[in-house]
Write a structure and sequence with these properties.
Low-confidence stretches: 1-6, 8-13
Radius of gyration: 21 Å
Helix content: 40-55%
Structural class: alpha/beta
Distance between the termini: 34 Å
Number of strands: 16
CATH topology of the largest domain: TIM Barrel
Mean pLDDT: 92
Number of domains: 2
Length: 393
């Protein structure tokens, strides 16, 4: 069975349930970041937050009992600012209220600073078995421009420590940075692959509204590569990673066969997950209805809500069949394995338009496999949003 077929089989048969836990604090706010992250100069009361996480886990589990947790992801923010005992308390609460699979994947996002790397052994002892490092660049000038607090040397040292502490690790890089050429990125990517065991997340720099980079870009003080260079950078990424055995299994994620991030596959395959912590999103199946949940973003406001009500949920929308199908299409087509159009039809109550499929196939943007699965081609991925919009119309 080919790699693609094996992944399809796993996706079709596995009943996955993930738990996402959001730690919202950072030492500083990166100028490109629009995530729900907050800088606090006073000490964080970790014990109080740990109790609130446990309370929200308990309340959520009461809504969806009987699940087996197959993946846990501690994201942020900067979860590696937490003490290992705080991480341990959160994982203990999850295990108390849900059954946890014997082979559960437990990922923690970490900044590759020397201070945070010293906690890796403690996280491993607490139950973390996979770490995702926010390296972002391998040269000091780029790191400074991106607002990162670590050096390239410090990042590589942290990767080496992660390699010893965890069975599995990954790290992120941002490309399409100002003045970056395909030749420069190729050299950096080759170096990164030499340090990567099984997984890399490679993101093109995007200018998000509300960030400092947005203002600089609008004022003409921050130039990103033009469309042609950005496409060349993308093509270099695909070619080099595939050649080294790390092909893209999702538009921005590359892994050796079997080393895909199982938690993120939960999102992309449209499976169920709980969102715990300030600003966390969830997708819960209750009495045959898919609920889209979101919690209060402001950490202290979330804390007070949980202490008063047992949860910080501020949005709990029931998705109708069309909304659920569109979300399945939007997320699933990010994956190299694509989607099963029959599942879309089951969710939407209608099939995808065969004429639109035929036109997109003719244009080389999508392919239909012999078993009927529909997937976006390498040529189609750079215009993925347009492909999804066309199919969903």
């Amino acid at each position: 069975m080919s790699r693609a077929k094996a992944k399809q089989a796993r996706g079709a048969t596995q009943t996955a349930f993930g738990v996402y836990v959001h730690w919202p604090f950072c030492l500083s706010k990166c100028p490109y970041c629009d995530f729900n992250s907050h800088v606090r100069h006073a000490a964080i009361d970790e014990a109080r937050f740990a109790n609130a996480f446990a309370r929200e886990i308990e309340t959520t589990a009461a809504r969806i009992p009987g699940r087996e947790v197959t993946s846990i992801f501690l994201g942020g923010g900067t979860p590696s600012l937490m003490q290992p005992q705080t991480v341990g308390a959160i994982l203990e609460a999850i295990g108390k209220h849900w059954q946890v699979a014997a082979d559960v994947e437990v990922t923690l996002e970490a900044n590759p600073t020397s201070v945070e790397a010293t906690r890796f052994a403690g996280y491993r002892a607490a139950g973390v078995n996979r770490v995702s490092l926010g390296v972002q660049a391998l040269d000091d000038a780029s790191l400074k421009a991106l607002g990162r607090l670590h050096s390239a040397r410090e990042a590589l040292d942290a990767v080496a420590i992660a390699r010893k502490a965890f069975e599995r690790y990954s790290f992120d890089l941002i490309y399409a940075r100002p003045d970056q050429t395909p030749q420069m990125w190729a050299a950096e990517l080759q170096q990164a692959i030499g340090e990567a065991a099984e997984h890399l997340s490679l993101y093109q720099l995007t200018i998000e509204e509300g960030t400092p980079f947005f203002g600089l870009h609008a004022a003409g003080k921050l130039q990103t590569p033009d469309e042609a260079v950005a496409r060349a950078l993308y093509d270099v990424t695909q070619e080099i990673c595939a050649r080294h055995g790390l092909p893209a299994y999702e538009i921005s994620n590359h892994a050796r066969d079997g080393a895909e991030c199982r938690h993120n596959l939960v999102y992309w395959r449209g499976q169920e997950y709980a969102g715990i912590g300030p600003g966390a999103h969830g997708r819960l199946d209750i009495n045959g209805i898919r609920h889209a949940t979101a919690t209060e973003k402001r950490p202290e406001a979330w804390l007070m809500r949980v202490e008063a009500n047992g949860h910080g949920v501020v949005t709990d929308d029931s998705l109708n069949s069309e909304e659920r199908a569109d979300e399945f299409l939007l997320m699933g087509l990010r994956l190299a394995e694509g989607i099963d159009p029959r599942r879309y039809a089951t969710l939407a109550g209608r099939s995808l338009d065969p004429d639109r499929i035929a036109l997109l196939r003719e244009e080389g943007a999508i392919a239909v496999d012999s078993d009927g699965r529909l997937r976006v081609t390498q040529a189609g991925f750079p215009v993925l949003d347009a492909v999804v919009a066309d199919l969903a119309a």
